[in-house]
Design a protein that fits this description.
161 residues; alpha/beta; 6-stranded mixed β-sheet; globular
């Protein structure tokens, strides 16, 4: 997968200019925040899991962590991360550039409520040197999500301006 493919996807909505091709690495939450000049919590990290044999994506705020108990209650299985070397095979993106866009049709996407407290968030755009500037509502629309979930911990629920 490439930045160009994700940007072309957003061009179909007249939003290709929202895609940011960075000179610096955005492979981790900390690196992405530094490269974008924003706080880590606003980085919309995309986490890849297997539920049984089925891959799924959860997009969460950069300061949120998966809560194993909540995940298991919702999906009826313990969270099992897709190994980095298998990520591209199942998700279509390499680690560091995994994003909720241009995915195989077999991959369901969920957004964690930890993202709702922000007006602007930054998911990756297909590479480890990219991002897309979106609102949570735009992310919901353009990622074709199955829904909002509450499967994370370690973030504060107060609105952040």
């Amino acid at each position: 997968m490439s930045f160009e493919k994700v940007q072309a996807y957003f061009e179909t909505f007249g939003m290709g200019g929202r895609c940011i091709n960075l000179k610096e690495s955005s492979a981790t939450v900390a690196l992405a925040a530094r490269a974008l000049g924003t706080e880590e919590a606003r980085i919309a990290k995309t986490l890849s899991f297997f539920v049984g044999e089925t891959p799924l994506i959860i997009v969460a705020a950069g300061d949120a962590r998966i809560d194993n108990r909540k995940f298991k209650l919702l999906f009826h299985k313990k969270p099992k991360m897709i190994p980095g070397e298998e990520c591209e095979k199942y998700i279509g993106h390499r680690p560091g550039g995994v994003c909720p866009f241009c995915l195989p049709s077999t991959v369901d996407v969920y957004l964690d409520i930890s993202l709702k407290r922000f007006d602007v968030i930054y998911p990756a755009a297909g590479t480890d040197h990219s991002a897309v500037k979106l609102t949570p509502e735009e992310l919901e629309k353009y990622a074709g999500v199955k829904g909002w979930v509450d499967v994370c911990k370690s973030w504060q629920e107060e609105p952040v301006s």
